[in-house]
Amino acid sequence: MRIDVVSIFPEYFGPLEMSLLGKARGAGILDIRTHDLRHWTHDRHRTVDDTPYGGGAGMVMKPEPWGEALDELASDAPEHAPAAPVIIFPSPAGELFTQATARELAREPRLIFGCGRYEGIDERVFAHAATLGRVRLISLGDYVLNGGEVAVMAMIEAIGRLIPGVVGNPASLVEESHEDGLLEYPSYTKPASWRGREVPPILLSGNHAAIDAWRREQRVERTRERRPDLLAGDR
Ligand code: JEW
Q1: In whole angstroms, what is the distance from residue 192 CA to residue 143 CA?
Q2: What are the CA-CA distances from residue 190 to residues 171, 186, 197, 205 (Å)?
Q3: Buried-most residue among 19, 42, 65, 198 (CB within 10 A)?
């Protein structure tokens, strides 16, 4: 999968070199390229923001650098992925990012992420981007970040680990939270007794049918307590 990321803070993405995703990049499974939006400015101060029409607090990202960046990156299609890219803008006003979103995006050969800053990006950029690819405005959750970078890091990690060859054991992907709408069961490891706290005896019983039933019960109970919205099918 080819991923391009445009940001005024490309250094934010340094940690992607590490751990599982770093290995996938080394193995050629993931081709992640970060770009400085200011590369597509032409004035002395490399300006990317301006005051909002209609007034109001803060600054808005100018459309011109975004237009040039997206034109160049969208036209640079890799041979294995000649189709139009999916172009993603993190936004507090976007659709919610879920495991289902990550699954959809993990099937795409080509993603472009645009990281806004300030109060966001001139709205016409999204309309222009829609002429270059399939645009999605995506929210990581109902809270306000200072820009899109942290949201893009989270999305790349969630998407990247679903690409075959990135996470070692594919069964561990199927078993986990959010793949089937329930939270995970509690996990324990040695020692069996720690600071007076015991591992639930059923896990030491060797009765695998009973263990499966207990884990299922735990998952339903935790989901009811912590995330009733998941049981109600709100998500
Ligand atoms: C998020 C991108 C770019 C995503 C999630 N937009 C906007 C905005 C900002 C602050 C105040 C008001 C509007 C900051 N900001 C972003 C925030 C994504 C940008 C600028 C974002 N929360 N926040 N889930």
Answers
A1: 40
A2: 23, 14, 12, 15
A3: 65
List the residue whose alpha carbon is closest to atom 16 of ligand 1: 147
Predicted local confidence at residue 231, as pLDDT: 96
CA distance 139 to 166: 24
**How would you class 103 by CB atoms within 10 Å of its CB: exposed for 0-12, middle for 13-18, buried for 19 or more?**
middle
3-state class (DSSP) for residue 205: coil
Q: Is the CB of 59 under 6 A from ligand 1?
A: no
DSSP designation for 121: B
Atom of ligand 1 nearest to the CA of 89: 2
Kindly report the number of other CB atoms within 10 A of residue 168's CB atom. Answer: 10
Q: Of 29, 28, 47, 51, nearest to 38 (Cα)?
A: 47
Q: Is the CB of 94 under 6 A from ligand 1?
A: no
Among 119, 126, 142, which is best to mutate for testing ligand 1, by the most ligand atoms less than 8 A from CB?
A: 119
Residue 116 near ligand 1, beta carbon < 6 Å: yes
Atom of ligand 1 nearest to the CA of 151: 4
- Which residue ranges of the chain lie beneath pLDDT 50? none
Per residue in 44-86, pLDDT tens? Answer: 999 999 999 999 999 999 999 999 999 999 999 888 878 999 9
| Phi (first) and psi of residue 138, to 5 degrees | -130, 130
